[in-house]
Structure to design on (832 residues):
DNA sequence: CATGAATGAGGATTCATTCAT
DNA sequence: AATGAATGAATCCTCATTCAT
């Protein structure tokens, strides 16, 4: 009676489930969630419409999995980078490296990011998942940078703020909207700003 | 037999058209474009479903008008503020004022902003409109700040960057997601960062 | 937001709603509820599939209305008959008249009765509606027959039992299943049994 | 390439086929034929969905077997009872015994009876099977009661009629719908009526 | 024989858009 | 201009049945 969704164990099944997720990933990227229908996902995955519901509870469930996959693709390289931060290092080299990494990650995943972020507005579940991702990233990076002595105060606020900055710049950068903007110059502003952020201390703040 | 959309001249008609736009504005804010149907818009506007197509080519057309309205609501106060910038002024007072203004504007329009921004991804027209808005704001503000001597180099890049920063912070601030963040402290970081931005000069840049 | 179902006021609309109910009535009669699809109902009613959902919440809602219509068709003639029972009357003439009336009513509505009764098993709503009908019939008839002095004891049990008997005989009679049965003779048994029922009194009962 | 349905010879196979029938029996009882799907039947039977089609031509075929099983369960105790009717006996004791037996049988099988009877309306095959059952019961019982001298005229009509009465009373009794009915009293009416039926003779009939 | 993954036609429902009044 | 009933294509999802293993 209870609706059952296959939890694929066989390699072939896992691969098929992944094909469906990939098809969803692509289509949501290209035309968005609401403009994608399940038949099209099935077609692109090379399976029947029926089997989609063998692996997923409903269309929304595909979205959930696509979101997870995206999260993973975004977080993995960042975490990996920060795992290598043990030795003494120079902030002036680190920040540009990070900026480049995020720009690249964004280049590869910009479209799905947009598509998923769009749902954030109406879909609590996706919104929560995004928050979870930000939380995890912020806390982990803040801890690391505090541990290695790079940031002394307001670590979480700084990290989160830096991530926001990077995020919106990456968006600008990838879509390259405005032709009156010199993006290489803007990139330098970003790098300087983030680098400066680390050094800011409470006492500095004349606005407090 | 070209499809004709009435361009209302009568006052009563204009008011009716506006009521439809307002209803769309509200509903798109509340549940997003895709979860709003035209019948509901008509009902909320207090008109018949049929007449909606007397004033708008299609559902998308309502979205276009809602977007325009939103743009206007956002830009007007900002432009008005910058019209008053003739006299000498202190950056340390100006930036916090601007930040507060943007935060307030965002508070009032956050939902529709999200809803519209969501469509940016799949809808070229909305996306273009957003770009136009950013262009206009950036160029006008950059000119002003250059004219009054506040910014000397890279004015457009700085202004645009500052707007991005403000934008993403406002998003954070309004939705107030993460409980491990002290938003008043983060706000100070934003103010300092933007203030510092004005003073940055080419020569300063050791990363170039 | 709330799903709205038109409550038709216009004559034309009422007629259209009735056409849909009639189409449902016919189709449920012919092939049963589960073997009827909404498109077919719409087609037979001469309307579009969409408008069906303008008048009915869902397919089940059509069933509800069909049930109501059936109830009305069954009860009306019976109630009318019993309204005329004021004058002194002869049971030996009354019972055969009633039997014939029920047989005729059954002949006209046998199929839909079967179709609806079938749903009784899985559908609480229909089941309740049937019970309501039986209750109403039983109580009203029992009261009448007690008032006119025809039944002295256990009126409701007797009436209900007589209705059951008539019901199942009518079913047999209409479908005329078994060729080894002489139905005219069986009809006499039914008449005698029901007639006898009225006269049974408590004291008579040697099995008590 | 005629579709082949295995006629299981192996004990293990027969047992498996029976498990499927039992599962169908239960599920049809609980939620009806149309609300039961083959996957669920297979699951409850502890077999794969595929093998169901090794033993049954289609879903309908399971229904056929379930019907047969039901018929058997109903008829066996009745026939057994009537086999013992050789000695002289008292009708006043026999009828209550039969009534109780039928009530019990109905209690155990009411749900499946309802479920199957429901299909009678649209399904010729099931309908025919029901008729066959009634035929067999009626003729066999009528013969017996004539042989032992209990009924002299219209035996088949009387037996069939009595069965109908019992049937509908059992339905009432088991589902116990109406709270304004005293069912123990109604039961006495049933017993008296059926007992009286035996004695009715042609000549008695003043309505002829 | 057995498995359970896979198929795809079919069905209920929604909704942007049109049209008779 | 205005109404709101009507249209029907499109969409999500189910399930009897088949098939590769």
């Amino acid at each position: 009676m209870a609706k059952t969704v296959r939890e694929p164990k066989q390699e072939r099944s896992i691969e098929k489930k992944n094909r469906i997720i990939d098809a969803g990933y692509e289509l949501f990227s290209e035309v968005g969630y609401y403009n994608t229908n399940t038949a099209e996902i099935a077609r692109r995955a090379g399976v029947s419409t029926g089997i989609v519901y063998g692996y997923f509870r409903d269309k929304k469930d595909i979205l959930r999995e696509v979101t997870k996959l995206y999260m993973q693709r975004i977080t993995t390289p960042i975490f990996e980078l920060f795992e290598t931060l043990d030795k003494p290092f120079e902030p002036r080299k680190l920040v540009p490296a990070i900026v480049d990494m995020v720009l690249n990650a964004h280049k590869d995943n910009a479209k799905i990011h947009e598509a998923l972020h769009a749902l954030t507005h109406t879909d609590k579940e996706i919104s929560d998942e995004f928050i979870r991702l930000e939380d995890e990233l912020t806390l982990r990076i803040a801890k690391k940078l505090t541990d290695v002595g790079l940031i002394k105060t307001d670590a979480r606020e700084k990290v989160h703020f830096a991530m926001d900055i990077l995020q919106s710049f990456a968006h600008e950068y990838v879509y390259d909207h405005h032709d009156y903007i010199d993006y290489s110059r803007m990139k330098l502003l970003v790098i300087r700003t983030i680098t400066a952020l680390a050094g800011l201390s409470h006492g500095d703040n004349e606005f407090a």
Remarks:
- Residues 203-208 of chain A have pLDDT under 50 and may be disordered.
- The longest helix of chain A spans residues 91-120.
